[in-house]
Amino acid sequence: MAAQSELQLGSLARTVPQSRWKHVMHGLKRDKFLYLLIAPGLLFFLIFKYVPMWGVVIAFQDYSPYMGVMNSNWVGFEHFARFFSNQDFFLLFRNTMAISLLSLLFFFPLPIILSLLLNELRNEIYKKWIQSIVYMPHFLSWVIIAGITFLLLSQSSGIVNKMLVSLGFAKYDFLTNENNFWALLTVQNIWKEAGWGTIIFLAAIAGVDPQQYEAAKMDGANRLQQAWHVTLPAIRSVIVVLFILKLGHIMDVGFEQVFLMMNGAVSNVADVFETYVYRLGIQQGQFSFSTAVGLFKSLVGLILVIVANKLSKRFGEEGVY
């Protein structure tokens, strides 16, 4: 009897994986066009996101392009120790966090506010025109935006300074004043991306049940009260998820923008981890050291996402995962 039961269990164990495999194959065959639709996105993440992860091993090596990844000498955490003991570390950390926190404080809420305002527009033609106008800066490169900023704020030939002089005021140093640099980057980010950031929030607002607004009207709520008590609670989960994802990129301030706006007069407040990696990794060829810096940034973002996700679940939100 024992031998017979063992044979039955063995055959059952072989049957279950086979049935699961058949079920998977049936699902693939049934939804083949959907899988073909997502195939380009999967290939993109596989080729450009997951495969390059293998390269982080050089952060623990004295990497040489001539010897390759497999033959380079292992040095452990030597590059990390060098990075944390470097006198530039605290300067870079301060600048990066200051720019990121300003963006988080002033930039992140603006797409939400702009979405609420656009949602209140009842004239569809006027609404579409406004949306197109606020979306437009997103498609401009940072090179163009840096050029526009220079034309407007240059001390020698900027339009704003010419207007100040014509009004009897002295010229103001916008671009080479350390006190202005962080605010200037924040304003550029707001102008370029605030409109584009409304897309997700407007999509979330479109899914709000209209009956909730009708009930709020019957209770005597005005438009502002409806936005506060109906719209915002309805899109709260979307706001939380995007906030958590934003925390994951808190160490990424945008190399191109900072690099184009940086000059010798503001380097003390403009130098961030990304420009530091560019100087050491690209210009000086210190590939292992610059990879260690990049890995540190990624780990900080990962820890913040995990902590924020757990806190959001503790307060009753769904979180990212």
UniProtKB/TrEMBL annotation:
Residue intervals of the ABC transmembrane type-1 domain: 93-308
The protein's name in its UniProt record: ABC transporter permease subunit
Subcellular location, record wording: Cell membrane; Membrane
Transmembrane segments annotated in the record for this chain: 33-60, 97-118, 139-161, 181-206, 227-245, 287-308
Coiled-coil residue windows: none
Family: Belongs to the binding-protein-dependent transport system permease family.
Topology with respect to the bilayer: Multi-pass membrane protein
Pfam families reported in the protein's UniProt record: BPD_transp_1
UniProt xrefs under InterPro entries: MetI-like, MetI-like_sf
Domain of life: Bacteria
Principal subcellular localization: membrane
Keyword annotations of the record: Membrane, Transmembrane, Transmembrane helix, Transport
